[in-house]
Amino acid sequence: MQLLSALSAVLRRRPSLLLLLAVVAGGWYGYEVLLARPSLVYLGEPKIQNWLQPLTWNHTLRNRNFLVGYSELRGNPLWVSYRLTPPPATHRNLRRPGSFRTDWRNLSFVSHSDYRDSGYDRGHMAPNHAIAVLYGRNAQLETFLMTNVSPQKPDLNRRLWERLEEAELDRFAHQQGMVWVLSGPIFDDRIERLASARRVEIPDAFYKIYAAPQTNQAPLLLAFVIPQQVRGDEPLERYVTSVDKVEELTGLDFFPQLPEDVARQIEAVSDINAWELEPISQQPSRYSGHKRLESGSKRPH
């Protein structure tokens, strides 16, 4: 209170400082909304379809090289956006951090220990390995913020989800030259939360959406919806769906800057041939032969 009183007194004596603060705040907000955030998402941040559904509310968190739409009510990121390009021919694998960090920017303050003995892994939405390879150590460390994490069953996280993360970097990025990715959880109407942390809701499935920009053409899209309950060795193409279906399941509108007539055409289908998915659909993870880790940890992807 004393600090606020002193600040108020200073502003009364120097009203020009108030104007300066307003200009600085306005400049920062303009940079954030008009420049910084749009550079980390393709064709606009996902929009809420119905504002009367609070469980779709989210606030945007900007990290190095990826963007997060975080839900305080669910204790999960509802969407994460990042960009992939072909990785350098020679790169070193960066050491995996030993733990995840609480993000001071979220109100629920979900922590590393909240998942302990829960039966669920801390599942990356923006992947550790790809972000580290393309953007370096500081960006990698931010993928270990708990605002980038959702509860995933071990067989999903360490096997099928890992396979998809490998495919997007090792194959899709090379095929297309540049790929934008949207990733996040899907929830049904029955709310189930971690016994170890009631503020964290358990998703029923997860989605990935890939968009490859094309010169003078509509982008190529590919979407997946993958349930929690998988063995991990299922073919990836089994889970291919449309962007329209993901929008229906999440209550979000993806690529809101697409013209409506174009969106209606390309968001209704996924062309697996354009992405050459079939040859890698059953390709195992590079870590599939390793002993599985205890719940709460994961391979470096």
Structural features, described:
The protein has 301 residues and is an alpha+beta fold. It has helices spanning 2-13, 15-36, 128-135, 137-142, 154-176, 243-250, 260-266; strands at 47-48, 59-63, 66-71, 76-84, 121-124, 149-152, 179-186, 193-194, 197-201, 205-214, 217-227, 240-241, 252-253. It is built from seven helices and 13 strands. The protein has two domains: 1-36; 44-280, Extracellular Endonuclease, Chain A (3-Layer(aba) Sandwich), CATH 3.40.570.10. α1 (2-13) packs across α2 (15-36). The longest helix is centred in the middle third of the chain and has 23 residues, at 154-176. The strands form four sheets. A seven-stranded antiparallel sheet has the order 2-3-4-7-10-11-12, with helices on both faces. The radius of gyration is 21 Å and the shape is globular. Mg(2+) binds at residue 157. One of its GO terms (molecular function) is hydrolase activity.
